[in-house]
Write a structure and sequence with these properties.
By secondary structure, the chain is an alpha/beta fold. It has a single domain (14-307), classed as Histone deacetylase domain (Arginase, Chain A, 3-Layer(aba) Sandwich), CATH 3.40.800.20. Helices cover 41% and strands 14% of the residues. It has 9 helices and 8 strands. An 8-stranded parallel sheet has the order 2-1-3-8-7-4-5-6, with helices on both faces. Helix 6 (153-164) links the parallel strand 4 (142-146) and strand 5 (170-176). Helix 1 crosses helix 9, helix 7 (199-209) packs parallel to helix 8 and helix 8 packs parallel to helix 9. It is globular and about 45 Å long. The structure holds zinc ion. Zinc ion binds next to loops.
Length: 308
């Protein structure tokens, strides 16, 4: 089976900031110069009811009415973008759980979004929406791996909120090069901020620190590129380091038989680093997922339901 990578032209808002603009550039790259074993698929928009189980229903309705959220200046295009792109995360989650192996969406994880407000370019937290959907369809243990340059404090707060309301089973491991949106580690939810020189060893330690990875039903990977030294990150995190990071993540997942749904995250263009340069970095995630998948025997990564 090919690795499904979800994308809809509705994800991308013309003239939008990188968070809502770059997905089309990555998609064009994947259609113009395709990667063996990867296919682009169109997702359905997310169900509003699912959003309202993660976020405050009043906040959800205000975003849908165009009154709240990041990028409201783009009006209905933005609302369509957020429904399509969150739907893409859900589609990747459903595919990885149903078929095993890897799946992705060219939309962003949006890990700063809180229960009832937007933050740091993030309106709805697709990572947690995806994790809750995974629990709905039978997963018991979902691990969010967040290697965006910034900490995923929004995700951590939503996991805590769900725990308080009796919904368990979502964990997070977070390695960042910026203390933005930092939060204290607690059992099952850990955050570490490191310098560029320590980045790769921290990634390896974070993966090694995961307890009993064989019992994880699904990994949701927030594959931010803003740790890269030219894309907003830390000196020493170059393209080779990023490729090694992606390779380690997918090899770790394959070794432990964990299906992975990955999404884009940060990665910002500038006068010296174009959106095409950013897209080339995001392409590395797809390339490494395809490379690792091609080295696995067909039955290596099994659907979660088969282990129930
Ligand atoms: Zn970031």
């Amino acid at each position: 089976m090919k690795i499904p990578v979800y994308f809809s032209s509705a994800y991308s808002v013309d003239g939008g900031f990188d968070t809502v603009g770059k997905s089309a550039v990555v998609a064009h790259s994947l259609s113009d110069d395709s990667i063996d074993g990867v296919e682009l698929l169109e997702p359905r928009p997310v169900h509003i009811e699912l959003l309202e189980r993660v976020h405050d229903p009043d906040y959800v309705q205000q975003v849908l009415a165009g009154r709240r959220g990041q990028f409201t200046e783009h009006g209905t295009d933005f609302v369509a973008s957020i429904l399509a792109s969150t739907g893409g995360v859900v589609a990747a989650v459903e595919s990885a759980l149903a078929h095993g192996g890897f799946a992705g969406s060219l939309s962003s994880g949006l890990h700063h979004a809180r229960y009832d407000h937007d933050s740091g370019y993030c309106t709805f937290n697709g990572l947690v929406v995806g994790a809750v959907r995974a629990l709905d369809v039978g997963a018991r243990r979902v691990l969010i791996i967040d290697f965006d340059a910034h900490c995923g404090g929004g995700t951590a707060s939503l996991i805590e909120r769900l725990n308080d309301s009796g919904v368990g089973g979502i964990e997070q491991v977070d390695v960042s090069v910026s203390s933005f949106d930092n939060y204290p580690s607690r059992p099952g939810v850990t955050c570490r901020v490191v310098g560029g020189g320590d980045y790769l060893s921290a990634i390896v330690e974070a993966l090694d620190s995961v307890i009993d990875p064989e019992s994880i039903d699904l990994v949701i990977y927030n594959a931010g590129m803003d740790a890269h030294e030219n894309a907003g990150g830390a000196m020493g995190v170059n393209t080779d380091v990023i490729r090694e990071r992606e390779s380690r993540v997918f090899e770790w997942a394959a070794r432990h038989d964990c299906p992975v749904a990955w999404v884009l995250a940060g990665g910002y263009s500038s006068a010296r680093f174009t959106v095409n340069d950013v897209a080339r970095l995001h392409r590395i995630t797809v390339e490494e997922a395809a490379r690792v998948a091609s080295t696995q025997p067909k039955s290596m990564i099994t659907p979660a339901s088969a282990t129930d």
